[in-house]
C-alpha cells in the first residue's frame, strides 16, 4: 500500500514539473536581436502539455486543473484575469470529450486535432483581447497553432517516456 502512495506522489511531481516547465517556456522572452515576428513561431507549450495529460490521465487532469493553470498563466503573462483560464477550460473540455478517440489516432492525426484545439485556444484569447481593445487581427496570430501541431509528436513522445519511466498513473 505504501508503494502505491509513493508512486502517486512521484507521479504528481512529474505532472506539476512538466506543467511548470511549459510555463517557463511560455514566458521566456526572446533575445533583443530576434525580430518580433519570430515570436509567433513559438509553440503554445502549456496547451500542449495540458492536452497530453488530459489524453493520458483524464481521471487526474481535467477542467479544474486547466482552470487553475489558466489562472496561473494569466498572472504570469500579465493578461486579463481569467483570459487564459477560459481558453484552457474550453480547450480541456474539447480534449476531454475526444480523449478516447485521440488515443487511437496516429501521432500525425493527433497533430491535426492539436492544431484545431490550440487554434481554438488562440482564437478565444484573441477574442478576449479584442474585446479589451488590446489586440488587432493579423494572420501571424494563428501561427503558434501550426507550430504546436508540428512540435506535438516530440512533446507526445517525451511526455509518454516520462509517464512510463516514472509510472505516472
Helical content stands at over 70%
Order of helices and strands: HHHHHH
Average pLDDT number: 91
Indicate the radius of gyration in whole angstroms.
Answer: 16 Å
Count of separate structural domains: 1
In terms of per-residue confidence, which ranges show pLDDT below 50 for 5 or more consecutive residues? 1-6
Overall SS class: mainly alpha
How many distinct helices?
6
The biggest beta sheet reads: none
* N→C terminal distance: 15 Å
Write up what this structure looks like.
The structure is a single chain. By secondary structure, this protein is mainly alpha-helical. The protein has one domain (2-29, 36-165). Helices cover 73% and strands 0% of the residues. The protein has six helices and no strands. The protein has helices at residues 2-27, 45-56, 63-77, 83-104, 107-131, 143-165. Helix 1 packs antiparallel against helix 2 and helix 3 crosses helix 4 (83-104).
Core attributes:
disordered N terminus
Summarize the helices and strands and which ones pair or pack.
Blueprint lengths: L1 H26 L17 H12 L6 H15 L5 H22 L2 H25 L11 H23 L4
Helix pairs in contact: 1-2, 2-4, 2-6, 3-4, 4-5, 5-6
Amino acid at each position: 500500500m505504501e508503494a502505491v502512495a509513493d508512486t502517486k506522489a512521484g507521479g504528481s511531481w512529474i505532472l506539476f514539473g512538466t506543467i511548470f516547465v511549459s510555463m517557463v517556456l511560455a514566458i521566456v522572452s526572446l533575445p533583443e536581436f530576434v525580430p518580433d515576428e519570430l515570436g509567433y513561431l513559438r509553440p503554445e507549450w502549456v496547451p500542449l502539455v495540458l492536452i497530453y495529460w488530459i489524453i493520458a490521465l483524464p481521471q487526474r487532469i481535467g477542467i479544474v486543473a486547466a482552470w487553475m493553470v489558466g489562472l496561473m498563466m494569466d498572472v504570469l503573462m500579465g493578461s486579463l484575469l481569467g483570459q487564459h483560464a477560459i481558453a484552457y477550460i474550453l480547450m480541456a473540455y474539447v480534449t476531454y470529450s475526444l480523449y478516447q478517440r485521440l488515443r487511437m489516432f496516429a501521432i500525425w492525426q493527433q497533430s491535426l486535432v492539436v492544431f484545431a484545439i490550440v487554434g481554438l485556444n488562440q482564437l478565444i484569447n484573441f477574442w478576449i483581447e479584442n474585446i479589451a481593445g488590446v489586440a488587432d487581427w493579423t494572420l501571424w496570430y494563428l501561427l503558434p497553432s501550426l507550430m504546436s501541431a508540428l512540435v506535438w509528436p516530440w512533446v507526445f513522445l517525451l511526455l509518454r517516456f516520462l509517464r512510463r519511466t516514472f509510472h505516472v498513473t
